[in-house]
Amino acid sequence: MSDLPPLVNAVSHPAPLRNDLPRWRIVLGLVLAPSAFALQVVVSYALAADACGEGGASLIGLAAINLVALALIIVGLGTSIANYRRTRSEGEGSHRAVQSQGDGRSRFLAYFGLCTSGVFALAVLVQLTSILVMHQCLGLPTLP
Hints:
The chain crosses the membrane at residues 26-47, 59-79, 108-134. This is DUF202 domain-containing protein. Keywords: Membrane, Transmembrane, Transmembrane helix. This protein is an all-alpha fold. The protein has one domain (21-133). Helices cover 67% and strands 0% of the residues. It has helices spanning 4-10, 23-48, 59-86, 95-101, 105-133. The protein is elongated and about 70 Å long. The N and C termini lie far apart (85 Å). The model has no long low-confidence stretch (mean pLDDT 76).
């Protein structure tokens, strides 16, 4: 006979806390930041495409789009932080162990969402800063 049943019983599930953390929270932590960034890029491009044209783009509109995207990313970041804290007992060690060993699927996905949200928050902050600092084509007077 096969030795598969004892082997299956000896190996633990890769995500022992899979039933403690709802899937929608994991998905929200993973998807909200990239989706908000993509929406921000598309809408900002549509608004700023004619920035150097006739009337120029609205600085308030562009800043508002970036602030809404940043708020959504902060919600995703908060969800990822809460997910990571909730799955802390899934594997041993700190975030370095999650990166190197990948122990605990739910914990790894929560950590990945945390890192992704941070990167996209930084990208939106850079774009918001560039809109506020380099506004020569936005219909505003340039500084001497």
